[in-house]
């Protein structure tokens, strides 16, 4: 290895290490906040962030991408934890990891590239709203009877004040320096301010101690029977879907920024393995994190080392600095999450109204609302279905025909557009068998036959002309069409040199 290449490797390693340390610092406040959202011990969030970050960085399909405990999965966990307890969560995370492994083994990760941009916008906007709404629960306190009430009076003003201070620091500090994550600086500043001024407010330590050692292997303490399976399976599918969707969308984003190509199926396997480990070692599970990934990528980190360093730094925080983390005011975490929500939301969506097709705005709004009121997985799947139907409808309207008579008195239909399931009705309406002459030619040179529904429509058209004793000639169909047509097969004029070469999407083709 030459001296110049060694120097370049050292510089790259230095960038990855410094970026990893920065990412680890940025992961701490969010891991704690998401754990609180999920109603679990903050240590459960930190363990998840450590394990997810380390395993996916070492074995995942997108070097430079950062994973950890996320709000999108945390909001799904709330109902499960509240109704059945954290042990059921651990069992669910293991099953979700198994489902993600199966997804990767079946090589289904590539299909995430088919997600339309409006669906991605709705996904991001819905996630931002969910994160913000989840913070409202921290404005409630329990009375002596165990009932929740909104915080009022001086405690409310103090909490709002600390939240505002946190948000101001996060927004203004990057304009002065980017040497340290603004979120971490804000949390430390608010914690010191509260301590020095004697401000009494709820802290992480008031909820639970986060002092801990190394994660220990632990099989979830739940009845391993059919009843338990009925409880955890629905949540496992949702968590697996939400985790994979957010991860693979983040992978796509990093691909675009770096101009490289990640390996989505390998990333699915790594995410599944990491979640299984989380379930057995007391973590709440997670997926890729857009915010922390952008911190890493913008710092210039492109290799696995940065994520590995971030994971190991998180573990060192758990082992050696737990007493400091326990002094963090809850208001600081809420402020961080409000900023995360604001920065996650794509405000450009509002500027796009009137500039992009109305159906795209409808998809964005639908995915956003479904995300807020149900879950991310359902929202994205619904958005893809709506986008596909809109696409089919728009293309179905583009089929057209020009007619003319040739010198031999034959009527020629020159088709344009695509014949497929959504356009077959319009295709049939283009023809007038009763009014046509004895010989009719249908020219497919500028049209494409896409599926079995189109073939059935062509066969049906041939049958109509055959019934009234007229001759129909079909020109420039692909070989696939010729093979699959039944009644119209004898009416196809085959020209090897001129006929198009495309394939028809049909199950009958082996």
Automatic annotation (TrEMBL):
Residue intervals of the STAS domain: 408-510
Matching PANTHER family: SULFATE TRANSPORTER YBAR-RELATED
Taxon lineage: Bacteria, Pseudomonadati, Acidobacteriota, Terriglobia, Terriglobales
InterPro entries (UniProt xref): Membrane-Transporter-like (IPR052706), SLC26A/SulP_dom (IPR011547), STAS_dom (IPR002645), STAS_dom_sf (IPR036513)
The keyword Acetylation is annotated on this UniProt entry: no
Gene3D superfamilies per UniProt: STAS domain (3.30.750.24)
UniProt-annotated location(s): Membrane
Membrane topology summary: Multi-pass membrane protein
TM spans (from-to): 43-60, 88-106, 118-136, 156-173, 180-199, 232-254, 274-295, 307-340, 361-393
Main subcellular location: membrane
Sorted UniProt keywords: Membrane, Transmembrane, Transmembrane helix
A GO-annotated cellular component: membrane
PROSITE patterns named in the record: STAS (PS50801)
Protein name: Inorganic anion transporter, SulP family
